[in-house]
Amino acid sequence: MTRLFHVLAAALVACSLALAIRQARLPLQTAPEAQIASAFAKAGFALSAQRKTALGPELSFTRPGCGVPTRAVLTETIHRDATQFLADMSGADEELITVYGGAAVPSLHLRDLAWPWLRRKLGVMLGLSRASAWDSIGLAVFSPRQCRNNGLDWSALLTNP
User: Fold this and answer.
1) Which residues fall within 8 angstroms of residue 157, CB to CB, at 6 or more apart?
2) In this structure, are residues 143 and 154 in contact, taking their beta carbons and an 8 Å threshold?
3) Are 53 and 90 in contact (CB under 8 A)?
4) What pTM, to 2 d.p., does this model score?
5) Tens of pLDDT along 18-66?
6) String of DSSP letters for 64-126
């Protein structure tokens, strides 16, 4: 049993090293804030403000016909208290949409992110999928409920940058 453990541990270390070498050869990506702004601009949003929060940068977007800004909080790390931070930031008149790695997720809690993160990393490491600029980006979008009936498909916007 001990030998099996050591073999698995050595395989994990070798895979991690291979992934690190492969990641080092990837070309530099644009800043995540620029990616988010570009994705929102495709849907007619204009970046109006940016500020820092405990999770990461918060971008505010305006859209014609909606007087309340749409906010997007960007996080590049998995934070164990993300759910509580987002609940504290959310208003009663806002709908919360969470995305991690370019895919919609129920929340930015570790239990919801562990499997997608592992599956994506293993796919890249084994060469089954390509690395993406969205691989480690978590996004929480606070959409005003009063502007919800505008026909915008959030999942398509946020998962297909």
Assistant:
1) 39, 40, 42, 43
2) yes
3) no
4) 0.69
5) 766 666 555 555 677 887 888 888 888 889 989 998 888 899 998 888 8
6) TTEEEEEEEEEESS--TTHHHHHHHH--TTEEEEEEETTEE-S-SSHHHHHHHHHHHHHHHHT
